[in-house]
Inverse folding.
């Protein structure tokens, strides 16, 4: 045993004693600072793989002490941390399957492009089969506190090697996913896949001038709605099925009107069949521009907002689908005046890319605040939508989902009534000052305690598990 001081800075582990960390398992003392919380306590060191340091596992008594202190701090603001954690545990995040294989799917079709969905990077270990993807997802879920959902795209059908075109898909093609979801206690959501298919090669699907193309995609969308209703019935929780189409023009179109009228007609055909809302919910997703549709996207925000209001479908807002300085957090309270429920695709736009891994950014916090402050937890379905092929894909899922949960926790720990009162009194100085003070409250200690209670790694120790899984499983994939 020896005494050593460690600090976590910029995601790296430093041994300030300058001693090599290549030591057999031992226990030392460490100070770990980060996220507004600090602990001084025992740190477990495990054997080091590949000469790289293991991230420390924080001992339970340190977590307990940190939490006891945080609980008192929050209580001084009238905030009950236990209640906040209880509410957090009730929020399910829908994890998008497509981060695990770079939006590939497992259909027996020839390689196609189209749709502007492009994951960049070639980090090894992409899931090549549904079984691999399920295994990877299980690993990810095990590192995320709480019970969550799976968001599956229709192109992840399992057809037993048989070519089944998208307009002929049936519930049976998802039987293994459904069984797996049941076994793991996961709810499911679903998506029509109107891209990466020969019938989408023109860049148009439901808004195509070609009636045969439109008909094919209408049939696909209808098939998916029925599959969704089946999934929802089987799992006992409504399956949100989100429709996104890539249709749009690279260069300035002359006619923006006709494709939009065609899209409306197609949607009417897709949604004609009434399905039980206890099992299935329709959602439509807008976009401002995409790769190859820079000048005009047919399914714009205004288009789908109008459609959702008219038909009371869910509206999906993807955080990366607007002007770079435009935020979705500000839209939620306007939209929910007119429709019952919405879906979020929580993502992170970086310049022209709409799909970077979610981090605890100001906008992520603002999204969570809007949901929590306004009492929308029941009305806003939270899904993630990012795909990064340049880093470990499980690390991507876990980082993004943990960030979303942290943002929700911060919002749940806010003394909102106090802030509201200041605002109503017109005391904007105190409102601003208090909002800034709240940023340094020890939410990190509450988060760590939540992770411990939910039986997942506290702090950065989950990265060790991802590395281990990479060594044992991912690195063996061709
Ligand atoms: C595309 C949309 C859409 C997709 C997924 C794969 O810009 O965001 O949600 O990312 O359907
Ligand atoms: Zn999206």
């Amino acid at each position: 045993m020896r005494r050593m001081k460690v600090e976590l800075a910029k995601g790296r582990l430093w041994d300030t004693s300058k001693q090599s960390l290549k030591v057999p398992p031992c226990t030392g003392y460490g100070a770990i600072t980060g996220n507004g919380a600090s602990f001084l306590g025992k740190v477990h060191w495990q054997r080091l793989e590949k000469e790289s340091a293991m991230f420390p596992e924080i001992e339970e008594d340190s977590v307990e002490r940190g939490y006891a202190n945080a609980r008192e701090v929050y209580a001084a603001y009238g905030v009950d941390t236990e209640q906040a954690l209880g509410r957090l545990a009730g929020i399910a995040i829908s994890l998008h399957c497509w981060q695990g294989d770079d939006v590939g799917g497992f259909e027996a079709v020839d390689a196609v492009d189209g749709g502007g969905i492009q994951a960049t990077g070639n980090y090894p270990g992409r899931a090549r089969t549904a079984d691999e993807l399920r295994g990877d997802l299980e690993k990810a879920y095990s590192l995320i506190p709480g019970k969550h959902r799976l968001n599956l795209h229709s192109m992840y059908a399992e057809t037993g090697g048989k070519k089944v075109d998208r307009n002929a898909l049936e519930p049976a093609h998802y039987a293994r996913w459904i069984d797996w979801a049941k076994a793991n206690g996961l709810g499911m959501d679903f998506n029509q896949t109107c891209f990466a298919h020969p019938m989408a090669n023109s860049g148009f699907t439901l808004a195509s001038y070609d009636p045969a193309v439109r008909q094919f995609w209408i049939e696909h969308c209808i098939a998916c709605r029925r599959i969704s209703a089946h999934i929802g019935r089987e799992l006992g929780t409504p399956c949100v099925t989100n429709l996104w189409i890539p249709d749009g023009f690279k260069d300035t179109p002359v006619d923006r009107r006709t494709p939009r009228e065609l899209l409306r007609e197609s949607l009417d055909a897709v949604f004609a069949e009434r399905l039980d809302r206890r099992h299935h919910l329709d959602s439509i997703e807008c976009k401002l521009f995409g790769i190859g549709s820079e000048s005009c996207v047919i399914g714009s925000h205004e288009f789908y907002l109008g459609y959702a209001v008219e038909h009371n479908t869910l509206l999906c807002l993807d955080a990366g689908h607007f002007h770079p300085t435009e935020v979705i957090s500000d839209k939620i309270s306007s939209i929910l005046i007119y429709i019952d429920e919405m879906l979020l695709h929580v993502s992170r736009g970086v310049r022209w890319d709409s799909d970077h891994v979610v981090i605890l950014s100001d906008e992520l916090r603002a999204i969570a605040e809007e949901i929590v402050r306004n009492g929308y937890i029941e009305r806003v379905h939270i899904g993630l939508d990012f795909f990064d092929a340049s880093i470990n894909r499980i690390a991507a899922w876990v980082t993004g989902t943990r960030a979303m949960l942290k943002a929700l926790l911060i919002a749940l720990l806010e003394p909102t009534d106090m802030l509201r009162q200041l605002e109503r009194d017109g005391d904007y100085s105190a409102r601003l000052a208090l909002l800034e003070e709240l940023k340094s409250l020890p939410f990190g200690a509450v988060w760590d305690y939540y992770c411990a209670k939910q039986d997942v790694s506290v702090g950065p120790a989950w990265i060790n598990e991802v590395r281990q899984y990479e060594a044992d499983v991912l690195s063996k994939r061709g």
Notes: Residues 1-51 have pLDDT under 50 and may be disordered. The longest strand covers residues 26-34. The two ends are 42 Å apart (CA to CA). The CA atoms of residues 28 and 424 lie 51 Å apart.
